[in-house]
Amino acid sequence: MTAPAYLDDAAIERLADLLEQRAVPFKGFNLEALDGFLSALAVGPDTVPMSEWEPAVWGTPPRWSDSDERAQVESLLQGHANMAGARVRFGDDDLPDHLAPLLWLPEDPESEADDELDVGRDWAMGFFRGVELREAAWEQWLDENDWIDEVFVLLDRLASGEVLGEDVEAPGTPISYRERLEIIAGLPDMLADLHHHRIDALTPREPIRRADTPDRNAMCTCGSGKKYEKCCGA
């Protein structure tokens, strides 16, 4: 069965229902966590095959009724992965509606809301579960790039609901609903930046080779008629 390039509304609803019935009760992902998880895989340092990442989705792997049902489920998951992979190529300004991050928000996100609403939490938790599959490689990126660490700090605020100070032993300051919305609004740009970094990191580079240096007693290649050691090699 060929997986779709992205999931339409009906397919998203089918996948959400499937996860609620077969994954969430067994410590697997809901749709929002799955979206964060697949987003991390789309921008991560290495390609992770579906055979490796799918078990994490379910918690306890379900038993499917037959091969057809199994194929349909895998098509939904791969379609979601395709959608996450396509999303990261866009920033916030030109992101198509059908590729927007899948996370729960109130009907009117701009209205005043209780600061206890943990919008974005499951998405961020799912993202970090994806990071765990290639933790060492992500750690190297974090060590080499301060801006990636800043992205992780923001996602950690979504996941934990707190802003940590310089004293890691001190209690964190709870983040507000508005602060959560600001981080969520920046997700497409964060993912696009990570995607560009991934492409750059995985692009092979030709080694820079120095031009062959003439022997010191050879005639200089500049055409002066002098020996190299008395001319350009001096």
Description of the molecule:
The protein is 51% helix and 2% strand. It has nine helices and two strands, in the order H-H-H-H-H-H-H-E-E-H-H. Strands 1-2 form a two-stranded antiparallel sheet. Helix 2 crosses helix 5 (121-132), helix 2 (31-43) runs parallel beside helix 9 and helix 6 crosses helix 7 (146-160). The longest helix is centred in the first third of the chain and has 21 residues, at 67-87. It is extended, with a radius of gyration of 25 Å. 25% of the residues are buried. The mean pLDDT is 89.
CATH class of the largest domain: Mainly Alpha
Largest sheet: 2 strands, antiparallel
CATH architectural name of the largest domain: Up-down Bundle
Radius of gyration: 25 Å
Spans with pLDDT under 50 lasting ≥5 residues?
Answer: none
Q: How are strands sequenced across the largest beta sheet?
A: 1-2
Keywords for this structure?
234 residues, mainly alpha, Four Helix Bundle (Hemerythrin (Met), subunit A), 2 domains, 9 helices
